[in-house]
Amino acid sequence: MREYIEAHRQGNLLKLVTHLSNTCNLSCPGCFVNRPDDDVNEKRKARRHDEMSFEDQKALLQEAKQMGVKTIDIVGAGEPTLDPHFEQFVDEVEKLEMDLVVFTHGATKTFQRENLVKYKNKPISFFIKLWSLDQNKMNQYVRGALRNYAQMRDEAIQNLEELGFMQGKTVNIDGKDRQITRVGADVLVMKSNIDEIPDIFRFCRRKGIMPIIKTYIPQGPTKLDHQNESFAGLSVEEQEKLKADAVTPAEFDGLRKQIEKIDEEEFGNERLEVFYPQGVFCTQSAGSLYITINGDILSCVGTGHIYGKYQPETKALSETVRDRIEKVGVGCIPRIEEAERLNNEIPERERKILEMGSED
């Protein structure tokens, strides 16, 4: 945490959050990276006409390295492993001696055992959607061309486990030995699955999976005020369904306490006051920037202010860090702002966690 905050103070970066192609074989209405001008139908998301070229993406990686970046997070815009340059992108990150974290739905040919083995010794980790352990329920959360999505996802997790992605070396962190894993669970908390989250957490702990447990990101279709009608592409019914399933800060605070108790009593882990319950603090604003597939530069995935377009050799990243207007930290200020817009009460401890390390 101190390293990220110090990087922010020095005008440096430790992480870059970005996209690969907009292409996806799912078309989920609540996907936070959906935009009104995307080519989205019931079965898939298509490439955008204004996507960054692979040459520009390579230049972005090189500039990020020069600014001190150690980790590249791929959070979309579509399914990263479907990008035609995915393997080349992985190779570029490895060549620059950085780590790659890929947020994926886990249902592509990449996760077939014979294809996954090529990444076993690469500096790459995968975060896979784990909103429900029940396959029928999980299939109801997604929309698209994959009728057996959850089965494919579960097979991906099994293949990652059998290939040893969850059994890394042991390192000492804050005086305690911890085993590194290269598999994470992207756990979205909603009213419809909140009762299942404790069991999902137990599943992660037993498997050696890093849980990232969170509520809706306050951008895209899940920006629940919809004041400027930016996401009119969603039907009224879909918007209302998203709103109705949103978890309040008070409900999330109650879930956090449940998870802390489970971790202490069943797994012997002390309470961790971090943004993602019993996981990690947020690393997407302090010491980090967010670049979309069409080159828009933002402070983090939860903010909406665009600082301009990324273009190679323009020092766009360093200028954005210098000119950043948002308050950043290792909690989540955008979630505080969203809760206040919706008049949702934030419990005192939850607010302290969301404000953690906040600096202008």
Q: Would you give an account of this structure?
A:
This protein is α/β, with parallel strands linked by helices and 360 residues long. It has one domain: Aldolase class I (TIM Barrel, Alpha-Beta Barrel), CATH 3.20.20. 33% of the residues lie in helices and 12% in strands. It has helices at residues 2-9, 54-66, 86-95, 113-116, 135-141, 149-162, 197-207, 236-244, 249-267, 316-323, 333-341, 348-354; strands spanning 15-18, 71-74, 99-104, 124-129, 170-173, 176-179, 183-188, 210-214, 288-291, 297-298. The strands form 2 sheets. Strands 8-7-4-3-2-1-9-10 form an 8-stranded mixed β-sheet, covered by helices on one side. Strands 5-6 form a two-stranded antiparallel sheet. Helix 7 links the parallel strand 7 (183-188) and strand 8 (210-214). The protein starts with a helix and ends in a 6-residue tail after the last helix.
Task: Please render the helix and strand layout as text.
Elements lengths: L1 H8 L5 E4 L35 H13 L4 E4 L11 H10 L3 E6 L8 H4 L7 E6 L5 H7 L7 H14 L7 E4 L2 E4 L3 E6 L8 H11 L2 E5 L21 H9 L4 H19 L20 E4 L5 E2 L17 H8 L9 H9 L6 H7 L6
Parallel strand pairs: 1-2, 1-9, 2-3, 3-4, 4-7, 7-8
Antiparallel strand pairs: 5-6, 9-10
Helix pairs in contact: 7-9
Rg computed from alpha carbons, rounded to a whole number of angstroms? 19 Å
How much strand? 5-15%
SSE class: alpha/beta
Shape: globular
Unreliable segments (pLDDT under 50, ≥5 consecutive)?
Answer: none
Number of domains: 1
Question: Major beta sheet, specifics?
Answer: 8 strands, mixed
> Roughly how many Å apart are the termini?
16 Å
Helix content: 25-40%
Question: CATH superfamily, called what?
Answer: Aldolase class I
For the record, the CATH architecture stands as: Alpha-Beta Barrel
The CATH topology corresponds to TIM Barrel
For the largest beta sheet, what order do the strands appear in spatially?
Answer: 8-7-4-3-2-1-9-10
* DSSP strand tally: 10
| Overall mean confidence score, pLDDT | 89
Q: For this structure, what is the CATH class?
A: Alpha Beta
**Please, how many helices?**
12
The topology string of helices and strands comes to HEHEHEHEHHEEEHEHHEEHHH
